[in-house]
Design goal:
By secondary structure, this protein is mainly α. 63% of the residues lie in helices and 6% in strands.
Length: 297
């Protein structure tokens, strides 16, 4: 940052700073012993800034300086309006659930998972309680042949329904907690249809990944949850105005949990579903930014 000169009073300094901003020259004006100092941030713009200052000192009443001040004030008001609109689009989990009527699909998915858990006694592997056997990904073994047999039998619903099966109260509780926060945020901001599409795509994609990773006996909403997490995380970074937000603590917690499961520190977890869901969600969240960059290239 380089000092390029001084002006006599604050009003003149602020007006000149607004003019520099209209030229895309980043500056700083501040008071010192000699008046109001004008600093230029970029070394590459020092000469342009000095020339502009000399012209300003010769004719400070030129209309272009007044216009620059008016444009700066208009830009500032517009920025404040955009920030206020963005704040309205961002909802905390508590705000979302104070408006729970706006997230009917999220509530419905939670209700179905809880109902299935009650029907199978939170232990779907117990042969005496396997009331929900038709929800498993396949009953024809693993591999491509199992998928083909289910397709021939018209049982394609199995590609999605394992998301409703849970193994114990803790498994159910944490998946429903994350579904409530992530699914509720997406549904509240982007609509029920969007969330429904995401659940189907993420559910089927993560289920297929887990099927070929470890066979047909698996269940849980965690593949969808990691997909929703990846989407909200990436969309919030690529498009802050979308109103989707995650705290840094939440991001770290989800990623740490992911790797603890992946490296089997936490055993017996559907890592194939976690990984596929996370990748699909990240790609989905980054897609608008990628399309924009592609079109501009």
């Amino acid at each position: 940052m380089r000092l390029i000169g001084h002006l006599k009073n604050e009003a003149a300094a602020r007006r000149f700073a607004d003019y520099l901003a209209s030229l895309d020259i980043r500056s700083l004006v501040e008071t010192d012993a000699e008046g109001w100092a004008v600093w230029i941030y970029s070394e590459d713009q020092i000469e342009s800034g000095q020339q502009a200052l000399a012209a300003y000192q010769l004719n400070p009443a030129d209309a272009k300086y007044q216009l620059a001040t008016q444009a700066a004030a208009l830009s500032e008001r517009q920025q404040r309006r955009e920030e206020q609109e963005a704040a309205k689009r961002i909802h905390t989990p508590g705000q979302i659930w104070s408006q729970s009527g706006r997230a009917p699909l999220t509530l419905g998915l939670i209700g179905v998972c809880v109902a299935v858990a009650l029907l199978d006694g939170l232990n779907p592997m117990d042969p005496t309680l396997r009331n929900m056997h038709w929800l498993w990904f396949s009953e024809n073994g693993g591999g491509v042949s199992g998928v083909v047999e289910d397709l021939r039998a018209g049982q394609v619903w199995r590609w999605l329904t394992p998301i409703f099966i849970h193994f114990g109260l803790i498994h159910l509780f944490f998946n429903m907690l994350w579904l409530r926060d992530l699914g509720g945020q997406i549904e509240t901001r982007q609509g029920t249809v969007k969330l429904a599409l995401m659940v189907v795509v993420l559910g089927v994609g993560s289920n297929f990944a887990q099927y070929f990773w470890g066979g047909p006996l698996f269940g849980g909403m965690s593949g969808v949850v990691y997909g929703l997490f990846g989407y909200v995380w990436m969309r919030g970074r690529c498009d802050p105005w979308a109103g989707l937000v995650l705290s840094p603590g939440t991001v770290w917690m989800m990623l740490v949990w992911f790797f603890l499961c992946l490296f089997k520190i936490i055993p017996d977890v559907a890592n194939g579903a976690h990984g596929a869901g996370l990748v699909l969600g990240i790609l989905w969240g980054a897609a608008p930014r990628a399309r924009k960059l592609f079109r501009s290239s």
